[in-house]
Amino acid sequence: MSSYSSSTVQNTDLCQCGLLPVLKTSWTDNNPGRRFWSCRMYLRKGCGYYRWHDPPVEGRSKNIIPGLLRKIEMLEEEIKELKRKEQKDAMWLRVVIVVVVLILGLALLR
Ligand SMILES: [Zn+2]
């Protein structure tokens, strides 16, 4: 896993771009939940400034957090799948209602 999230806590160091770094959280298997300072321009490559804010992740949490993250991803996938199925079902229901209304309409016209 390699996703990160941002926060607004500040650091007094400047990166090589002369900007205040941003505090982000690593969600990699080796550093789950460990925060680090990064160049503000990271999306446009930036200067590559990088400094850990938290000590290394150790012990039980290092083993548990990646498993929990995978479980969350799995559940999110399941929710997406159920929403897709629900939309499909709702579409079919609308089609059935239109057909029934048409048949009733035709029957009443006779
Ligand atoms: Zn920079």
TrEMBL record:
GRF-type domain location: 15-56
Keywords: Membrane, Metal-binding, Transmembrane, Transmembrane helix, Zinc, Zinc-finger
Keyword flag Disulfide bond: no
Pfam families: Zn_ribbon_GRF (PF06839)
Keyword Lipid metabolism carried by entry: no
Membrane-spanning residues: 91-109
Cross-referenced InterPro entries: Znf_GRF
GO MF annotation terms: zinc ion binding
Protein name: GRF-type domain-containing protein
Source organism: Daucus carota subsp. sativus
Taxonomic path: Eukaryota, Viridiplantae, Streptophyta, Embryophyta, Tracheophyta
